[in-house]
Specification:
5 strands; single chain; about 25% strand; 6 helices; alpha/beta; globular; Nucleotidyltransferase, domain 5
Length: about 170
């Protein structure tokens, strides 16, 4: 599999419509163990599902002392962390940053780990774990019954507020 002394996290998100119904998937590898995770939301974006996949995977790790490498095909996530964009966002209190709720949660999780790294991997390039994550994400999105889809409360509230504010301009006193 991979380096036995490191937890390898592979994470991916999917969205039908962007925004639309979305799913996320994660594969965690440690020694001879593998854990698959997935979930689905009724209305969200691809970037939110990419972030959710990483967040849910990290939340599932109990021992924060073991080194972790997060492998993601999302340059949005990997570059934001590795190029230090998130430090600027924190300093500016996430002003004008998309998905601040998820970034704040991810930062809090990252701080809990003794040693964590993020690596970009090319998507849909025959990496078996990345492909497995994609199947988990798409599968969750496509097979979860509508009544069981989670609500992305932050996304739905913020988009309905901005839509309502825009639509109301000039229509009512």
């Amino acid at each position: 599999m991979t380096n036995n002394e490191t937890i390898h996290v592979y994470a991916d998100g999917a969205c039908s419509g962007n925004p639309g119904k979305g799913g996320w998937g994660a594969v965690l590898l440690y020694k001879n163990h593998r854990k698959d995770l997935s979930g689905a939301y009724r209305k969200t974006t691809n970037n939110r599902m990419e972030l959710t996949a990483v967040i849910e995977a990290l939340k599932s790790i109990k021992n924060k002392e073991i080194p972790v490498i997060v492998h993601s095909d999302s340059q949005y996530i990997v570059d934001s962390i590795n190029k230090g964009y998130i430090h600027n966002w924190v300093n500016k209190n996430f002003n004008k940053v998309k998905n601040p709720d998820l970034w704040k949660e991810l930062i809090q999780l990252i701080r809990q780990f003794k040693d964590i790294k993020f690596e970009w991997i090319k998507g849909h390039n025959n990496n078996p774990y990345n492909e497995a994550c994609d199947k988990l994400a798409v599968g969750a999105m496509n097979t979860t019954p509508e009544s069981k889809l989670k609500q992305d409360v932050y996304y739905e509230q913020t988009t309905s507020q901005s839509t309502n504010n825009t639509a109301d301009v000039g229509l009512f006193e």
